[in-house]
Design goal:
The chain is mainly α. It has a domain at 85-148. 49% of the residues lie in helices and 4% in strands. It has a three-stranded parallel beta sheet, covered by helices on one side. 18% of the residues are buried.
């Protein structure tokens, strides 16, 4: 299932690949395992989060949460949130590795996958053991890496 505003993308994914288009008016209320915002920021907010029928949110859009309180809203609904800046590091890391460090495409992919998986596991563990949101846990990990 997918949603898009680009007519040619809709045609391609629907007609050529056979994917189901989710209409805009039921985007948030469609049952799914993972809700993946990949374009607009701020779409997870006090109005949209109560509509979600997913187990997790993980997407490529930057700044998916409209406010810091939205991480708590997701947590209270028992929706696992993978902070966007954690899962988005892959592109920059992979390209830098290939261009500056001489990694092959396969090596870059393996390193990115391992790095993101390791970071998410740590974030989810901290959030669970400290009873905080994954957003708060991700900031703790970032602060630790930056020596703050």
């Amino acid at each position: 299932m997918f949603n898009d505003v680009n007519g040619s993308a809709i045609k391609h994914f629907r007609d050529e690949l056979g994917l189901k288009v989710v209409p805009n008016d039921s985007l948030y209320s469609t049952e799914c395992d993972i809700f993946s915002p990949n374009a607009l920021g701020g779409i997870l907010n006090r109005e949209t989060i109560p509509q979600l029928k997913c187990r997790a949110v993980a997407g490529g859009a930057n700044n998916q949460l409209a406010s810091p309180d939205d991480a708590a809203r997701l947590r209270s609904r028992r929706i696992l949130y993978a902070p966007d800046y954690v899962i988005n590091v892959g592109g920059a890391m992979g390209i830098t590795g290939q261009e500056s460090l001489g990694w092959s495409k396969d090596e870059a992919e393996k390193r990115v996958i391992h790095s993101v998986q390791t970071a998410l596991r740590k974030i989810f563990e901290i959030a669970s053991t400290q009873n905080i949101t994954t957003e708060e846990a991700a900031r703790k990990v970032a602060d630790e890496h930056l020596g703050i």
